[in-house]
Design goal:
With 654 residues, this protein is α/β, with parallel strands linked by helices. Helices cover 41% and strands 12% of the residues. The protein is elongated, with a radius of gyration of 37 Å.
Length: 654
């Protein structure tokens, strides 16, 4: 943005900027004003001390003063570059020497007069040239309005010694460089003070974004933009690259500085987090999917068992598969996982280490709304399959996007969260923000708690393809709204989806197998029963089969008669419950047996025969395993979610 477009809340701030702009010519005047003044000083000293014994004492005193001034100039100019420091020191030395000589010989002496004329012209012109060049480069000075404003107010933010200079001024933003006092402050200190700096300079909150300079620790990259431009919804402009590849950037939003967000999604997964009403669905899902479905080599598999058709339903024509039931999402996860190895084998056979544009496989996008409910529906076994899918699908050609309100350990497996990029919408408080932001965003001062649900669509994005200077810069996703500017326009979204139907795309056989698979409701009961009690490998469509014995008939109300050949059941007393020490002995014995067999790890469920025989519970064994980890007998692989056998247990007393 131009300097006059910097958003200022105080008129006085604008007055300072205008004063700086009006003083451009005055920056050239000081050398020319000092030129005759120096001549007057030399002439006056000659008139006072240029005769008799006073000449010697004057020369000695002025010489010592010249040395002192030159040394002081060299020392105080240490923050300048070599050229600036050298120019200031050389000018001080030359002027001091001329004044000393003039005080002895007089201004009218030819040599003194010649040096005054020639030396003065060269010195004044040199300083003017340096001032003009530095002004054009955005160096600090009153020519640079931003530098002037910062310099006038930096002491209010306790940033004495720091300097800011404009590097590039655009229509909607200013890029600047900030030089920090060497050895006194680092970029992290400035990032924590952005609100103080904005307040000192009279700028709106959120104007300034600070990022480190990756080449020098004493420099910071600063971007200033007007946050007020983001307060109103921004209409969706249409797909950015219709018919292009999914490997090209997606455009789901606009940065605060007016530039389009360009997010290359391939090769990583994404977490979209924010409170209810912050815009996760209409901001993230609608815009990302609306872009993705226009790419010729991408297919979207989506699931939302919480809101069903409400959020993603209008996009159904463009989705290759959309599940809204528990059974459906379980089947989708299993189907996607089942195609991983065939896809990687296919790529390997053709010399591809990873998915590439044009490799022949369709890139798969798995979009899961309100994912905590999906994890609940999957159960332990299903979640384990999902995590395997998450870890392997990138190399097979796919990305997973998980949307939720709060990504804490109770809602999102830590193994999954560690693999996700971060798209964070408004949240309730700073504690919630910590679960959505990356560490780098948090350090850079990103504060989604300031929006809450009052500015839907506002978000921060930290992903592999995003410039580090922008990870703490707000963005706003495009708004699909009706003419009233408030109501979401599902009709427009549905029309867009119908324009890019999934059925019209050419997809590979593995993607087609997932897209064509459906779950039959009579076979898979969609209820609140424990999903781990269901064998997901048997989820297949209902098939009519031939009755093997038509002569056997019966009705649901017919009585059940006993078979006379059946033997009577006999019951034995349950085994005595083992004590804690005996259970520990049994577990350690099993671990020793596994070590003898060459086994290196095991899952908790592998000890089921032990705790069943002991009359104990799974929870009791889990507590025992935690103690063994503390003792160093066992370890735990978070990624594989398995216990590791670190050493042989101590011999068990007879």
């Amino acid at each position: 943005m131009s300097t006059k477009q910097i958003a200022l809340t105080e008129e006085s701030s604008w007055e300072r900027v205008k004063a700086a702009q009006a003083s451009k010519l005055m920056t050239l005047a000081p050398p020319w004003l000092l030129w005759p003044l120096i001549a007057g000083v030399g002439t006056a000293l000659h008139a006072l001390f240029g005769r008799g014994s006073a000449v010697a004492w004057s020369a000695i005193g002025l010489t010592l003063g010249s040395v002192l001034l030159t040394g002081v100039t060299w020392l105080v100019a240490h923050e300048r570059g070599f050229l600036g420091r050298g120019s200031a020191t050389a000018t001080t030395a030359a002027v001091s020497m001329w004044v000393t000589a003039c005080s002895v010989a007089g201004f009218t002496q030819p040599v003194i007069l010649w040096f005054w004329v020639a030396g003065g012209l060269v010195t004044a012109a040199a300083w003017n040239i340096r001032t003009v060049i530095r002004s054009r480069q955005g160096a600090q000075g009153v020519n640079d309005a931003l530098a002037f404003l910062f310099d006038a107010n930096k002491d209010k933010a306790n940033l004495d010694g720091a300097r800011m200079a404009t590097v590039k001024a655009g229509d909607r933003k200013i890029e600047a460089a900030m030089a920090l006092p060497a050895g006194e402050k680092v970029v992290a200190d400035i990032q924590k003070k952005t609100e103080h700096i904005e307040g000192a300079m009279g700028l709106p909150p959120g104007t300034m974004t600070v990022a480190p300079n990756m080449d020098r620790a004493d420099l910071a990259h600063v971007t200033l933009s007007d946050p007020r431009l983001m307060r109103e919804p921004i209409g969706w402009p249409g797909p950015s690259r219709p018919g292009g590849s999914i490997a090209e950037p997606l455009r789901p939003a606009v940065w605060q500085d007016g530039e389009d967000v360009e997010h290359i999604l391939i090769g990583h997964h994404l977490q979209a987090m924010g409170k209810t009403g912050a815009g996760k669905s209409i901001g993230a899902a609608w815009n990302y999917i609306a872009e993705i479905v226009t790419r010729h080599d991408a297919a979207v598999f989506a699931a939302d068992i919480t809101k069903g058709e409400q959020s993603l339903g209008p996009l159904r024509p463009a989705l290759h598969r959309f599940e809204t039931t528990k059974g459906g999402v379980r089947s989708l996860i299993n189907d996607m996982h089942a195609q991983l190895k065939p896809r990687t084998d296919w790529l390997s056979a053709r010399g591809f280490a990873n998915w590439e544009p044009g490799c022949g496989l369709t890139y798969q996008i798995g979009w899961f709304e309100e994912v905590p409910d999906i994890f609940d529906a999957l159960g332990d076994k299903g979640t384990e399959t999902f995590l395997k899918l998450l870890k392997a699908i990138r190399s097979a050609g796919g990305s997973i996007i998980l949307s939720l309100q709060r990504s804490d350990w109770s809602q999102m497996p830590t193994v999954a969260r560690g693999q996700l990029a971060h798209l964070t919408f408004g949240v309730a408080n700073s504690q919630d923000a910590a679960f959505g932001l990356s560490e780098a965003q948090d350090d850079a001062g990103a504060r989604p708690e300031l929006w809450g649900s009052s500015q839907p669509g506002m978000a921060y994005l930290d992903a592999p393809s995003i410039d580090r200077a922008r990870i703490a810069m707000p963005l706003r996703t495009f708004a699909w709204l009706k003419p009233d500017g408030v109501t979401p326009d599902t009709d427009a979204l549905r029309a867009h989806a119908e324009q890019w139907p999934a059925a019209a795309k050419t997809i590979d056989e593995f993607t087609a197998a997932i897209a064509s698979s459906r779950v039959s409701p009579p076979t898979v009961k969609d209820s609140d029963d424990d999903p781990d009690d269901i064998d997901r490998d048997d989820w297949t469509p209902t098939v009519d089969t031939e009755d093997p014995d038509p002569e056997v008939t019966g009705d649901i109300d017919d009585p059940i008669t006993d078979d006379p050949e059946d033997q009577e059941f006999t019951f034995s007393r349950p085994a005595e419950r083992l004590s804690a020490a005996e259970l520990r002995t049994a577990v350690l014995s099993q671990c020793s047996t596994w070590l003898d067999e060459g086994r290196e790890d095991f899952a908790t469920k592998d000890l089921a025969p032990v705790w069943t025989a002991a009359g104990a519970s799974r929870q009791t064994v889990q507590r025992l395993l935690r103690k063994l980890r503390e003792e160093g007998v066992l370890g735990y692989d978070d990624e594989a979610q398995r216990h590791t056998l670190l050493r042989r247990p101590a011999p068990i007393p007879a």
